[in-house]
Here is the input.
Amino acid sequence: MLLLNDCLTYFPDFINPEDSFVYLKLLLGNINWQQEILRIYGREVKTPRLTAFYGNESIAYKYSGSKFYAQPWTVELTDIKIKTEEVANQRFNCVLLNYYRDGNDSMGWHSDDEKELGINPIIASVNFGEERRFDFRSKLDHKLKHSIVLQNGSLLLMKGDIQHQWQHQIAKTKHQIGERVNLTFRLVKP
Here is the structure.
């Protein structure tokens, strides 16, 4: 499925349901999850989700006024990275992980356009656990919106100028939902 001028490719069955369940349990148990405090518009706020950052040695990534240093790859992260690189036709040197514990956890409107990612970065988003709606809106016209439901075991590739033209979010929901882990593979440049 292609959306937004060929800048978005969605693979709903990237990893089969049985393997997705195993990966979810491994990631919940083996990742060093943290609730970060970020500086947003001059205020310090706790992220409304848990996060972790893993990657190659000496990789650092800065966003929302904080700098994060990569923890070493785990076996399961390396395995998922290799599968993702084959489909994306792109090498990645780090992954930002998000753990959404329930419908109250979220991520606000943003673009992955930090200078460390270079021009027109490829971001590969792999999803495990509960389905969540992923929203896009145009930076020029916030009324222009698209949404896609990210399924368990899915892969969403964002490429081209999507990070320069669009923002994305995972909104809070009042629906009773379970856990979700999202991995966003990236290539951070020195």
About this structure: The mean pLDDT is 93. The longest strand covers residues 94-100. The chain is about 15% helix and 40% strand.
